[in-house]
Structure to design on (676 residues):
């Protein structure tokens, strides 16, 4: 477990509940859920409404460069937010529930809607009523180890009769990490005997200082919106690892992160059938990480100073031939830059690291064409193609220049056999994006001694994807969805050995290791519990089973792809108590298991299930008190390092290091006062 992964955030008697107003069909074939559908839940914001949509699983989007695939699966007024560091979840939480006219669930594609390659999206449609709305939210964490961490959030939205609107938000908060607790570490010899046993004490601190804003206005016959964010996220971790019998290890990590972004969109209807949209986005990310590690006879110091920037522009032309047929064409251009400097010293001696100091630039362009046709009320067809071309150059320790070109076709079919069922099929050529995190060395080398170098010479992973999904709706607000996916992958990105000029294996680094496969089976369920005599109750959950296979570049044996989790699941129960003006529930997130195959070790990371019990009380429409008991089951974070004497190809296990950390949970209190 990387110590730098620290979060710096911030049953009573059942009453009779009113029957919610059922959803109604909306334009473009979507299902529209009015505010009355969510009334018993007394939602605070748009996010509270979205997560209660039957058959919908929220996805905040991927951390990728460019605009495609980064926006998540929720639209706002039919458009994805032009933001990345300002997370989709936070954007939705800043939209008051009273400002929402309806929430649409769009399944299988719809003419005139940017699905961004997804088969299901939600669309939050806001009211256009002029006025002011604001909120002030103080909160506090009472952590199991005695820490008291405060936070404050302030939000304001203005809307004027002329169509202008403005938003402003400010966050300052500190929060605990649910992965960094106290515990023990045991190092076993290859024969199972104990080589070392120690007790671990961890102290972690972090802050979130965020400022966000947006302004929207009619402009030149169209509509323009600009939004920005400035985010400071400093954090530190201090770890004492005391040996039983004497001696210790000590580690201090410090991370200073600055993120800023500016996004804009302009859209205009040119004719009755043709509309134009332009999008621009610019972000800056500065990250400085320092790690100091001490052990008997050993001192390591690691420093990583990384700066990245991204500029993206896109122009999209949409032609709507009829209510059932639309076509889109567009181009996107991006410029991405990385400047990274890495230093490592062992006992005051400078140690060279492959690709320690690099300057990388990527110029990428993409053109696309897609069409959506509702052939009949029961059948919708979607087809499109993207053509991508990029040039990657690197200077410094690694000098290279290469050009990449990919064609990405896509086809999808949606069939509605009856009013309660839907079948969706998709075939697509997906191409991953180069991850600048793979271009630089990992800070784990300071604490573990395992060198993970950077590598700018990576080809994006590509895959042919075949997907089938079946959805069944029942009981008014119930839904069950089963999805199966198969991936045929080229240029799998995993770990490869770094070999010297004389054939010695020096380290490992991210790289392409050939072909692979991945299969996923997903199931989600939204179950209203009124028929089971739990009034105004809802059970919602999803599970993903995942299997992958690739050839290990060191051993030649077949194994799973590094970092892919075999199972993911989560479950949520909530019950509205209108008579008591309250809502309560339980959230459970499955523990994870990730395995990484490195040069001379196999590292396994495990997190146990995380359970939170919450309750909200709304004595007045403008006051809300929320209480959460987080991690009531005491979350365990386990790291298992199977370290070999030399490369894994020799098959000689030196030791197995097992570290168990227990996080005892926290109580969280938040008061929300709204205005307007």
């Amino acid at each position: 477990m990387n110590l730098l992964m620290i979060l710096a955030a911030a049953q009573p008697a059942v009453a009779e509940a009113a029957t919610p107003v059922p959803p109604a069909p909306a334009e473009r074939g979507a299902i529209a859920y009015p505010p009355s559908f969510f009334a018993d839940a007394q939602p605070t914001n748009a996010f509270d409404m979205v997560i209660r949509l039957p058959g919908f699983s929220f996805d905040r989007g991927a951390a990728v460069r460019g605009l495609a695939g980064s926006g998540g699966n929720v639209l706002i007024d039919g458009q994805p937010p032009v933001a990345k560091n300002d997370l989709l979840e936070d954007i939705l939480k800043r939209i008051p529930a009273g400002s929402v006219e309806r929430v649409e669930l769009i399944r299988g594609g719809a003419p005139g809607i940017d699905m961004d390659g997804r088969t299901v999206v939600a669309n939050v449609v806001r009211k256009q009523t002029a006025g002011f709305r604001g909120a002030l939210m103080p909160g506090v964490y009472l952590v199991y180890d005695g820490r008291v961490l405060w936070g404050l959030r302030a939000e304001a939205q203005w809307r004027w009769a002329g169509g202008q609107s403005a938003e402003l938000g400010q966050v300052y908060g500190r929060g605990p990490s649910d992965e960094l607790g106290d515990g023990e570490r045991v190092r076993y010899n290859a024969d199972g005997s104990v080589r070392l046993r120690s007790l671990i004490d961890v102290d972690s601190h972090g802050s979130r200082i965020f400022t966000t804003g947006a302004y929207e206005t009619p402009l030149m016959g169209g509509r323009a919106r600009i939004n920005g964010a400035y985010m400071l996220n400093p954090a530190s971790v201090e770890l004492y690892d005391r040996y039983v019998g004497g001696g210790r290890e000590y580690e201090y990590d410090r991370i200073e992160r600055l993120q800023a972004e500016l996004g804009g969109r302009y859209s205009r209807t040119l004719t009755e059938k043709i509309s134009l949209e332009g999008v621009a986005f610019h972000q800056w990310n500065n990250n400085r990480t320092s790690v100091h590690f001490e052990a008997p006879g050993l001192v390591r110091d690691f420093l990583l100073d990384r700066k990245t920037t991204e500029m993206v522009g896109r122009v999209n032309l949409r032609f709507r031939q009829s209510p059932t047929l639309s076509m889109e064409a567009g181009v996107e251009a991006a410029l991405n830059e990385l400047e990274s400097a890495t230093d490592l010293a062992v006992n005051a001696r400078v140690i060279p690291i492959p690709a320690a100091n690099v300057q990388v630039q990527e110029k990428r362009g993409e053109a696309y064409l897609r069409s959506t046709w509702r052939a009949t009320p029961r059948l919708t067809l979607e087809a499109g193609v993207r053509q991508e071309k990029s040039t990657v150059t690197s200077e410094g320790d690694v000098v290279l220049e290469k050009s990449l070109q990919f064609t990405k076709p896509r086809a999808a079919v949606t069939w509605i056999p009856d009013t309660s069922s839907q079948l969706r099929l998709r075939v697509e050529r997906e191409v991953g994006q180069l991850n600048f995190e793979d271009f630089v060395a990992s800070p784990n080398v300071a604490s573990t001694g395992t060198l993970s170098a950077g590598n700018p010479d990576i080809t994006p992973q590509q895959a042919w994807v075949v997907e089938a999904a079946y959805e069944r709706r029942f009981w008014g607000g119930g839904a069950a969805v089963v999805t199966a996916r198969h991936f045929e992958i080229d240029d799998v990105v995993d770990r490869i050995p770094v070999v010297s000029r004389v054939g010695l294996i020096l380290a490992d680094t991210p790289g392409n290791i050939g072909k692979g496969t991945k299969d996923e089976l997903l199931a989600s369920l939204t179950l209203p519990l009124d028929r089971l005599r739990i009034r105004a109750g809802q059970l919602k959950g999803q599970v993903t089973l995942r299997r992958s296979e690739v050839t290990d570049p060191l051993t030649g044996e077949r194994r799973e792809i590094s970092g892919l989790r075999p199972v993911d699941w989560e479950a949520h129960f909530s019950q509205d108590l209108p008579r008591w003006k309250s809502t309560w529930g339980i959230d459970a997130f499955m523990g994870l298991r990730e395995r990484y195959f490195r040069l001379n070790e196999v590292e396994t990371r495990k997190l146990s299930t995380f359970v939170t019990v919450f309750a909200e009380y709304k004595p007045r429409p403008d006051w809300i008190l929320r209480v959460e008991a987080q991690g009531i089951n005491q979350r365990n974070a386990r790291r298992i390092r199977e370290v070999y004497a030399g490369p894994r190809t020799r098959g000689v296990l030196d030791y197995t290091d097992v570290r168990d950390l227990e996080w005892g949970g926290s109580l969280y209190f938040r008061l929300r006062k709204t205005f307007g």
Remarks:
- The chain has three helices and 38 strands.
